[in-house]
Amino acid sequence: MSALWSRTLWLLVAIACFVFLPVLIISGVAWALVAVLICVLAMLAWHLTLLSQLMKWLEGPLDARLPRGRGVWEIAFAGLHRRVRIRLGQHRALSDTLERFMRVFQALPDGVIAFDRHRHIDWINERAEAHFALSAKTDRGQALTNLIRHPDFVSYLEAGNYDEPLIYRGGRVEGLTLLLQVIPYGDEQSLLVSRDISQIERTERMRRDFIANVSHELKTPLTVVAGFSEMLTEGYEDYDDAEIKHYLGLIYEQTARMQRLIQDLLTLSALESGAPTPIEERVELEPMLRSILADAQALSAGTHEIVLDMATPSILSGCANELRSAFANLAGNAVRYTPPGGRIEIAWRADETGGAFSVADTGIGIAAEHLPRLTERFYRVDRSRSRETGGTGLGLAIVKHVLTRHHATLEIESEPGKGSRFTARFPADRLLEPAHPLRQALPSAI
Ligand code: ADP
Q1: Which helix (DSSP H) or strand (DSSP E) does residue 358 occupy?
Q2: Which superfamily does 109-196 belong to?
Q3: Helix (H, G, I), strand (E, B) or coil at 1
Q4: Per-residue pLDDT tens for 46-87?
Q5: Is the CB of 337 within 6 Å of ligand 1?
């Protein structure tokens, strides 16, 4: 027999023994029945009170305190309490799991939008909010196609074939390219997963441009070399010595151009891969700048006035080969882009704020709109002039890389028709005293 029944039975026995029998013996049957009735009514009132407390508790929140009961109610309340505790535990475990899943979805590098069969949004993570300029708060419950109306997206969604992802451009966020994929799941629910591929696309475009540029740069000299060598091979005897010498000279010139291009490409690639060298060198600037001056004078062949102004001979901490290549590039450009008779000044200045290497010329100058792009690979203001003077279009890209690796910056001031000044600024901690110890680990590439 259950505890509830046994307690009820005991209560009835108690009423019979302590109320009915004594009153029956003392006052007779009628009073005994009245006494029992009073007891039953009292019990009924007590039960009703506890029942109303229970009803009130049932209407309250799940974690509200249970009323205290006695007798049979104590058993009933204890049972209820146990069930509520189990249910609360399950509820908490479920909320924790849900919370964890939400956090996982928020942490995903991809955007996720969950939507139902009517394409109404159920849930959006933060990344998807950013990808589509949506708001989880205000756009929940809205139809996806009302918010993302781009025809490519709408037709992808409507086609219903989600084996292939959609490359989505031209959304609300400018410059963003997304890879979209719909993943159906559950009961006609779906996930829209979005991945930002703008950077991959940019890199891919740069790679394509680079290959096109290199091919183009090699194509012209190769055509010249192939043309003249074919001409000489097929009709050598038709030409006199002077003509043959002239054609061989052209072949040599174009071959040298290709060699310079390949050398610059190798330098750039070594700089970009950035293989580290164990030490930084003490770079004595005075002998280096004197040799750069001599090279510039040789390149100019006496057609320019070239001077070196080195007020403060310094020692730089860095990679001598890389620095020499960068400084020589700037000096060489000054010679190549300054018409004969012009003046070129190579200078070094240093004080407690740092050091500055500069090359100023009175050459053709550069219009302001070109300045921000000058250090891009193969960017030239005047393609034919660059070619005529043996340029590869990679010089300033190399300079920029070398300076960045030495924590230095490149400043360009220029005015068309008046001249240019290229300044490489080095931070103070790159300047070494003669007794200063060597510092460690700058990647070296040239
Ligand atoms: P290039 O091999 O063509 O000279 P660079 O990368 O060294 O390539 O320079 C990029 C472009 O910057 C050049 O094609 C030229 O148009 C411009 N430039 C560089 N230095 C000077 C200068 N001192 N004066 C005028 N234009 C310059």
Answers
A1: strand 354-361
A2: PAS domain (3.30.450.20)
A3: coil
A4: 889 988 988 888 888 877 887 887 777 888 888 888 888 898
A5: yes
